[in-house]
Amino acid sequence: MAFDAKIFRVLVASPGDVGNERDVIPDVINDWNAINAMISKVVLMPIKWETHSAPLMGDRPQAIINKQLVEDCDVLVGVFWTRIGTNTGIAVSGTVEEIEQFLKLKKPVMLYFSQSPIEPDKIDITQFTVLKNFKEKMRLEGLTESYNGIPDFRQKFTRQFSINISNLINNALENKIEEAKPQSLPAKNKNSEETIIIPATINRIEISKEILTNEKVDEYLLKAVQSSANPNGWARIAAVGSYLHTYTPVDYRDFHFPKLQAFLKSRKLFEFKDEKGHPILRVVPK
Length: 286
Hints:
Layout: E1 6-13, H1 19-40, E2 42-47, H2 49-52, H3 61-68, E3 75-80, H4 94-104, E4 109-114, H5 125-141, E5 145-147, H6 150-179, E6 183-186, E7 195-198, H7 214-228, E8 235-236, H8 237-247, H9 260-266, E9 270-275, E10 278-283
Parallel strand pairs: 1-2, 1-3, 3-4, 4-5
Antiparallel strand pairs: 6-7, 8-10, 9-10
């Protein structure tokens, strides 16, 4: 069945030594679409230079790629192993130039660095040294992730990508609400100074409001925690909040709680602890 959807473009950025990871990223994105696209009315499109760019003369190769792909993308996923890439004349590599452009525009960037073993003779020392310096620079500018092998990369990227996409959808929704705030127009009645208010009609992206029973609320909460959890069952409260806001009609403020954590504790469904300063929870084992 056809449906209207908002499209977000996900740029896959990397040097040429992480081909397996470049295959995993579109697979994870397609899995997300299969599960979430219809209910969220959002479709994610993986963008890679080898499939979405076209030959064109008249500028630097990377500048052409930037115009054809980078400028219109919404999220960047960067992956590195032992190489940084080829200098573009402006940045140490095309991948780095893409990342720097995203950061300048304050668009979301997810960076992954492989710790998989490699034979020493296959390492380009110059490339590896430049990559190491870039990695340290990025660690000072945000949160990066490391992984060891393709299964580890797939597991981490699947979970973390879902969290960031939920935040991206939420931000898009908030911007839409802000743009659609009620406008005031002068009344046409000459004998009146009243103002006609044009109401804004905005719904959550995925769902409509419904009458919530306690059982239904608990069902939504359990699903939110389970969907946001790591393999050990623990989920960050921020991720749970993003899931609830994006996919359910449950709003803790409707239950007169000032914070989501207090609301979750009141349901007696979860156990809580802190992990590196972040509150996390999981479903109480039966």
